[in-house]
């Protein structure tokens, strides 16, 4: 198992939205268009995942930890998903072994990864693990829903951030 500890400089960098910011409704509408185009839809975070499900869109992969802004989040019905994985990821870290669950989840959607610990930084792992025909949606508290459309160039940016963490 490889656990990467994320330093404060990287945490500060990641506090800045890493994609375009939209409202929840705009994000769900965009995701529905993307889904129709064959893009994979990934949500990271309980509130974003709940909003998508109640908005009528089941993500291909959802990553949650049962918490919302350090408080218990509303329950997500795991029966909504074909596969459910339970993993461990401590706060402020990235357990790189989770990439295999990300790959397995994407290969047989819809899948849910339930994290014992914290899921916040796993969006970065998603961006370096999955293919370019995907869009990742996550909540930025008090800002909105962030949309990352993976392209070769976008993946390269995330690979460089990931490399900084790995050094």
Polypeptide structure, described:
The protein has 167 residues and is of the alpha/beta class. It has one domain (3-166). It has six helices and eleven strands. The chain has helices spanning 8-15, 24-36, 46-54, 98-107, 122-129, 152-166; strands spanning 3-5, 20-22, 40-44, 61-64, 67-68, 71-72, 83-89, 93-95, 111-117, 134-140, 144-149. The strands form three sheets. Strands 2-11-10-3-4-9-7 form a seven-stranded mixed beta sheet, with helices on both faces. Strands 1-8 form a two-stranded antiparallel sheet. Strands 5-6 form a two-stranded antiparallel sheet. 34% of the residues are buried. The model has no long low-confidence stretch (mean pLDDT 94).
Which range best describes the helical content: under 10%, 10-25%, 25-40%, 40-55%, 55-70% or over 70%?
A: 25-40%
Strand order of the largest sheet: 2-11-10-3-4-9-7
How is the biggest beta sheet arranged?
Answer: 7 strands, mixed
Oligomer: single chain
- Beta-strand content bin: 25-35%
Order of H and E elements: EHEHEHEEEEEHEHEEH
**Mean pLDDT over the full residue set:** 94
Q: Please identify the structural class as seen in this structure.
A: alpha/beta
Distance between the termini: 16 Å
Unreliable sequence segments: none
Number of domains: 1
Compute the number of helices. 6
State Rg: 14 Å
């Amino acid at each position: 198992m490889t656990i990467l500890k994320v330093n404060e400089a990287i945490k500060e960098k990641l506090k800045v939205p890493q994609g375009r910011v939209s409202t929840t409704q705009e994000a769900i509408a965009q995701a529905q268009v993307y889904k129709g185009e064959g893009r994979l839809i990934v949500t990271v975070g309980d509130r974003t995942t709940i909003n998508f499900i109640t908005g009528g869109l089941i993500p291909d992969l959802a990553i949650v930890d049962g918490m919302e802004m350090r408080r218990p989040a509303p329950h997500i019905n795991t029966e909504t998903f074909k596969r459910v994985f339970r993993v461990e990821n401590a706060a402020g870290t990235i357990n790189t072994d989770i990439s295999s669950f990300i790959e397995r989840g994407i290969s047989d959607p819809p899948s849910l990864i339930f994290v014992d610990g914290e899921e916040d930084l796993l969006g970065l792992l998603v961006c370096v693990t999955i293919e370019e025909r995907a869009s990742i949606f996550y909540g930025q508290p008090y800002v909105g829903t962030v949309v990352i459309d993976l392209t070769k160039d976008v993946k390269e940016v995330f690979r460089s951030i990931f490399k900084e963490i790995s050094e």
